[in-house]
Amino acid sequence: TLRSSWSSSSSNAVDLTNPFANTPKANATFVILCRERDIQGILESIQLLESTFNDRPHHRYPYVFLNDDPFSDTFKLRISRAISSTVEFGQVPPEHWDIPPSIDLVKAQKAWDRAKKAGMPYGDSKSYRQMCRFQSGFFFRHPLVLKYKYYWRIEPNVKFFCDLTDFDPFRFMQQNKKVYGFVLALHDIPGTIRTLWIYVRQWYEKNSHLLAPNNMFGFVTNDNGRGYNKCHYWSNFEIADMDFYRSEAYLSFFNHLDQAGGFFYERWGDAPVHSIAASLLLDRSQVHYFDNMGYLHAPIMHCPKPPKANALSPHTGRSRCYCAHEASFTFDDNRQSCMYNYYDVNGWNSTAAREELRN
Ligand code: GDP
Ligand code: MN
């Protein structure tokens, strides 16, 4: 009957058979930088993260919460009640957060006033710039984070659309020796990074011995290094091997940019910094596009294309993904995606990729 063709024959209960019986868990954590007032957005993100992934007994990865202020006991209690695993709360040390003494605050304030007048998002925000610098150069050295190799960055008010009972991005990274994982790639706002490439180029010209031979330079430049094409992985979602950020090469790159002062005189984001570093320092095979993961950070989302999303989960008997792939940002020509660029660099023909990924 029509009805039976529309209803699932399997039980609606989640079948928690461990698909990873022979695969060890990764040494991994979620890292959430936030303020107390982000509690509502954080609980929303966590509910989806838990119910699509982490509450499966074979996952249950720990959390680290970081804040430049101390967290209250109330906040800690609400978070610990919301998760199926364990959590630690840490304060960012002032030397990882405060504006370094080398920064000329008068010059910085003038730049912020100009940026605000020009209508740049977070144009005159000091704390946003401190956050971007922290996420670029320090989160991976926080004492609570140091013991972990892999991390997954979680922000307030994000959504996860796909069931991950039998896909573990951490185990995937570990098994496939991946170092940097993303779901969304787009163009940055030019005004925030006007001089970034000048310093990037200074650094790589002096340190060519540190570049990966088969890297993804072409993801970030269209003219062999004359300029930055503004492509970056959207780092509000990021799954990475933090040993990369702790490496001598990355730290040298970060320090060079930090000394240039652009985190404060402009508004360099951690997304372009991470992305350019990954494109210079990693082998192509170490960068992974998690196209099977559905994700929203307003106003942009990624939803896997139908063949992947349509396969019913053997664990739930339902669709894996609760999102409409047509709404996915990735292959929308009008909205500044960098995925064609990504595929080009990896030897895909853009037109073919376009056809393939639309269908
Ligand atoms: P957007 O996604 O670029 O619009 O910026 P968000 O406001 O989402 O900030 C990025 C991340 O940094 C989020 O996880 C925020 O919770 C966090 N964040 C931003 N500013 C601060 C800050 O001043 N203090 C703390 N503790 N977290 C911050
Ligand atoms: Mn955000």
Overview of this structure, please?
With 359 residues, the protein is α/β, with parallel strands linked by helices. It contains 16 helices and twelve strands. It has helices spanning 2-6, 39-54, 73-82, 94-97, 105-117, 126-137, 169-175, 196-206, 217-220, 242-245, 248-260, 262-265, 270-281, 306-310, 339-345, 350-358; strands at 28-33, 63-67, 87-91, 150-153, 158-160, 180-182, 185-187, 231-233, 238-241, 287-289, 295-297, 300-302. It has a seven-stranded mixed beta sheet with strand order 3-2-1-4-9-6-10. It has a three-stranded antiparallel beta sheet with strand order 5-11-12. Strand 11 and strand 12 (300-302) form a beta hairpin. The longest helix has 16 residues, at 39-54. The structure holds guanosine-5'-diphosphate (GDP) and manganese (II) ion (MN).
SSE diagram, text form:
Layout (H helix, E strand, L loop, with lengths): L1 H5 L21 E6 L5 H16 L8 E5 L5 H10 L4 E5 L2 H4 L7 H13 L8 H12 L12 E4 L4 E3 L8 H7 L4 E3 L2 E3 L8 H11 L10 H4 L10 E3 L4 E4 H4 L2 H13 L1 H4 L4 H12 L5 E3 L5 E3 L2 E3 L3 H5 L28 H7 L4 H9 L1
Parallel strand pairs: 1-2, 1-4, 2-3, 6-10
Antiparallel strand pairs: 4-9, 5-11, 6-9, 7-8, 11-12
The site of guanosine-5'-diphosphate has 12 residues, from α6.
Protein name: Glycosyltransferase
GO molecular function, one term: alpha-1,2-mannosyltransferase activity
Keywords: Signal, Transferase
The helix/strand series, from N terminus to C terminus, equals: HEHEHEHHHEEHEEHHEEHHHHEEEHHH
Strand content: 5-15%
Tally of domains: 1
Task: Determine the oligomeric state from the structure.
Answer: single chain
Family: Belongs to the glycosyltransferase 15 family.
Keywords: Signal, Transferase
GO biological process, one term: protein N-linked glycosylation
Pfam family, one: Glyco_transf_15
